Each structure stands twice: as structure tokens, then as C-alpha cells.
Amino acid sequence: MSSPRPPVAKAESRTYQVARNIRTDIEAGVLRDGEVLPSTRDLARQWDVSVFTISEAMKLLMDEGLVVSKSRSKRVVHAPNQARRNEVRPRQPHVILIGGFAGSGKTELGRILVRETGWPLLDKDTLTRPVVEAALEMTGRSPHDRESDHYLKLIRPREYEALASAATENVECGNSAIVTAPFLGEFNDEAWISRTQASYAAMNATTTLVWVYCDADTMHTYLRHRGAARDTGKLANWPEYLSSIDIDFRPPAPHFLINNSSSSVPLHNQAKDLISAVLGT
């Protein structure tokens, strides 16, 4: 299991943050083999950093062989192994529940695990967001509301119910599943953890809890970059948001800790270690 490392210098941190997130997008299949990356200036605007930072990040990725320079102004993703399909069919289904704060990288970790195993990815936002946003609008609220009592008491429980039902359906069919959601309340509730593990055990499936840690600076950079409307409130009141969460939270039950801070081991390496541990290989 990974653990948080000491923070790096600010300039170095920005370089590694950008390189890390582009690397993760390549490993997760968001950026495809042969895809031409935006120009240095465009990337600098996207990440809200200097062109120097982008150039240094590109050097790191080129040293790793993930990006190839075709000319001074053209850089291309180099990931020929993306076409390779892995299929892992354990005798006993495995359910991996991945939680973390917004912008921690839980969905990206899930995508990498999917590419390593071939198991279905059940992401809460992907499965429920359109319906949630429609429900909020129909009740006269912002589709991006994730803080009000109306959302927390009436809608959020249904989101997690739908997510659990999708996972259960897969397990009943003998499939493993990778489930990603914040799980902030759930992973802090020992009774919920015990019930969930017992429910899957009754279907002859094992459950693994994964918590994705990310330091505040890396998280802020990622949230700014993805530009999701649901993050607007957090970014507009970043100090207030940070004071409202416990960034050092850990589930009160056995779990794997993934460190997705800019200074930590690449997410792909940690994903491989996680799969080996889950499968006992």
C-alpha cells in the first residue's frame, strides 16, 4: 500500500502534476495511440501553467516513451499496447470498490484496472448523472447541486442504490466488477462496509475497498483542468472546501491505499500491484 510522500517544490510539483495526469489519460485509454496532442501553448492554457512547465512535462513523457515528437510543434501519443485486451476470469468474482474525494483520480484508476482485467467499470457519475441532473432540474434546482439537503437526502441514496444494483447484477452473472464513486459516507460507516461485504460473500464474491489519496495541490490542478460544472463551487471556494473535508481520511476497515499525488508512483504501477494483491498472484 502506498502512503503520502513529502510535498515537492511548487514548480517541480506542477511539472509532475501535468505529466502524471497526461500519463494517466494515456494508460486509461482517454488519450489514444497515435493521437496528436495539443500544442505547448494550448496545453499551457488548458492546465493553467507556463509553457516551460508543459515543455518539462513533455520531456518526462518522452523519456518514458509515452509521447513521441514528430516535429517541433507535433507530439503524438505512443501507446501501441492499448490495442491489447486483457481478460482475467477468476473462479470467484471480485468486487473492487474505489472511493476518494473529487479530483482524486478514482475513475482514472478504475479505467486502468479495467484495461488490466477486462472487468466491467461501474462509475456512479456515468451511470446516474443524466437522470440525477434531470431530477434536480424538474424540482427547480441546479443540475449541478451536490450539497443541498434535497440532493443528499432524496437523490444521493438512489444513486448509490442504482450503483449497487448494477454491481449485484454483474456478480449474479459470475462477473467481477470495478465500482467507482466517492463513497464518502459509505466508507466511513463500518456497518455499511460489513453489510456490503456480507452481501457479496453470500454470492461467493470477495470485496476489496480501495481509497484514492491525492494531496490538495494535485487535486486542485486536476479539478481546474477537467472543468466540470459540478466542481465550480469547490473551486470558487477552495479554502472553504478543503476545510470541510478530511483529506487524510482513511476507511475504518481493511483497504488498499492508492496515492495519486504528483510525487507518487505512477498510477498504472499501483494498479498492477493492486490487481496482483487482489488475485493473490
The H/E string reads HHHEEEHEHHEHEHHHEH
Beginning-to-end CA distance, first to last residue = 16 Å
- Name the shape in a single word: globular
Query: Count of helices?
Result: 11
Percent range of helical residues: 40-55%
Task: Describe this protein's structure.
This protein is α/β, with parallel strands linked by helices and 281 residues long. It folds into 2 domains: 10-82, Arc Repressor Mutant, subunit A; 94-279, P-loop containing nucleotide triphosphate hydrolases (Rossmann fold, 3-Layer(aba) Sandwich), CATH 3.40.50.300. 49% of the residues lie in helices and 12% in strands. The chain is built from 11 helices and 7 strands. It has helices at 10-27, 40-47, 51-63, 106-117, 124-138, 149-172, 190-201, 216-226, 232-236, 238-244, 267-279, and strands at residues 67-71, 74-77, 94-100, 121-123, 177-180, 206-213, 256-259. Strands 4-5-3-6-7 form a 5-stranded parallel beta sheet, sandwiched between helices. A two-stranded antiparallel ribbon has the order 1-2. The two termini are 16 Å apart. Mean pLDDT is 91; it is low at 1-9.
